[in-house]
Amino acid sequence: MTKYVIHGGKPLFGEIDISGAKNAAVAIIPAALLVDGICRIENIPQISDVTLILNILQELGADIRTINRTTVEIDCSHLRNLRVPEELARKIRASYYLIGALLGRFGSAQVPPPGGCDFGGRPIDQHIKGFVAMGAEVDVQGGYIHARAQKGRMSGTQIYLDIVSVGATMNIMLAAVLADGMTVIENAAKEPHVVDLANFLNSMGADIMGAGTDVIKIRGVDRLSGGSYSIIPDQIEAGTYMAAVAASGGEVLIKNVIPKHLECITAKLLEMGVEVEERDDAVLVRRTGKLTRTNVKTLPYPGFPTDMQPQIAAILCMAEGTSVLTEGVWDNRYRYVDEFRRMGAQLQVDGKIAVIEGVTQLSGARIRACDLRAGAAMVIAGLAAQGTTEIDCIYHIERGYEDIVRKLSGVGADIRVVVTPDEEKQAQVS
Ligand code: EPZ
After folding, report:
1. How would CATH label the architecture of 22-230?
2. Number of Cβ atoms within 10 Å of the Cβ of 180
3. What pLDDT is attached to residue 117?
């Protein structure tokens, strides 16, 4: 097993560069399936979720050329099959984008139900409602979702989402760009990665209006041709490092960000006594004094992001006073609290609400990452805690954070990757 070992209590100083956005990349890469030509995608984060989605495209017959560390060229002109391999698709939530992309381009898709972090139920009924409204037949057979456009091509229509869903908004957009006629998505999600996917598709020749508002109009076009596109910086990666500085103290310039995307996070950190200065494409985060309590409720964008909920909880555990945290998106996103309690944190959870009594100091412990953002929150807690924290199951964290150990070590954190003897022995045997 591989784990992170952190010797906490060291303030952070220096600069951190933010990578491309995971949740944009895992939609934009499948969107290349819609493009008839070579599609160059830049600022791709080097994380395991991206590797997985690229492997899936390759299995389908896409030609993928790595140009450099963050740039690939994808050519889907000669796809071999429309059935997505089960063992790969089940490891990643974003495999659901393959349904929309394959339906949009070929009028047919066979995709296993998606995997990803476990937050209780994660239905995709709104995606399917959209595909059906656009003229697809969708059923489940032999563990696969089978979707087929009845007329061979998707048809534009009006779709009202019952729930603001990032995945359904983006998936319907993928299915609609080559559809016959106009598709209107009402009550659409407004997250930065929704806008990024629309910008990517438009740069390849799509006709999408209104992304970033709650009504998106997609006029179907006959063909998307190749082009070049650079993915936006990762809002949540940036927020995670902002939270790390808030927890540990110090002063760090977080570079290559879009400060507007961070406003919801900045506002909460300011309330807690952290200083945040916005620059053109960077934020300077400084924490010298005590952290003070606040209340946080997660909501769809532009509200406070659910993907920052565990990280803000980590800081609230060390803030003076009692804070109330409300999860407004997922049913069960508090599976990490027992791990925080091992570090001396005081949290009570009742349904979607967590009440957190700040303690003066967390102490190091052996803990286990239970999902991606919870794992990142454990790193934050470990950096601020007194003593040594060991975090197991770090593969969750590496699904979404590029070079987290190098980036944190670069600003003075004492964090390293340790491979336990068991794994070394296994590696020698195989
Ligand atoms: C995306 O998941 C992100 N994943 C999640 O980030 C993020 O937490 C979430 O959006 C919310 O911002 C990716 O982009 C790959 P939703 P998604 O559809 O699209 C309910 C991370 O850590 N719902 O917006 O799957 C659902 O149960 C990950 O990076 C339905 O009821 O989320 C939830 O309560 C974790 N029916 C709410 O809507 C549906 O058909 C929002 O889910 C779809 C969703």
Report:
1. Alpha-beta prism (3.65)
2. 17
3. 67
Pocket test for ligand 1, best of 29, 97, 126, 166 (most atoms within 8 A of CB): 166
The minimum-distance atom of ligand 1 relative to the CA of 94 is 15
What's domain 2-19+233-426's superfamily in CATH? Enolpyruvate transferase domain (3.65.10.10)
What is the C-alpha to C-alpha distance for residues 316 and 293, in angstroms, rounded to an integer?
6
337 — phi, psi (to 5°)?
-65, -30
95 CB under 6 A from ligand 1? no
Helices (H), 165-262: 166-176, 192-203, 235-248
- Establish whether residue 397 lines the binding site of ligand 1, counting it when its CB lies within 6 angstroms of any ligand atom: no
Name the segment(s) of the chain with CATH classification 3.65.10.10.
2-19+233-426, 22-230
Consecutive 10-residue averages of pLDDT for the chain (430 residues): 96 98 98 96 97 95 96 92 86 92 95 76 91 96 92 97 97 98 98 98 98 98 96 98 98 98 98 97 97 98 98 98 97 95 98 97 97 97 98 96 98 95 49
89 alpha carbon to ligand 1 midpoint, in Å?
17
Does the model's pTM come out above 0.90? yes
d(CA 182, ligand 1 centre) in Å: 25
- pLDDT tens digit string along 155-167? 999 999 999 999 9
Beta carbons within 8 Å of 176's beta carbon, 6+ residues apart: 104, 134, 154, 156, 183, 185, 218, 220
Set 39, 76, 117, 370: catalytic member: 117
The predicted-structure confidence for 105-121, as pLDDT tens digits, reads as follows 999 999 988 876 666 66
CA 370, distance to chain mean position in Å, is: 15
* Ligand 1 mean position, distance from CA 307 (Å): 10
Which residue out of 91, 159, 329, 352 has the highest number of ligand 1 atoms within 8 Å of its CB and is therefore the one to mutate?
329
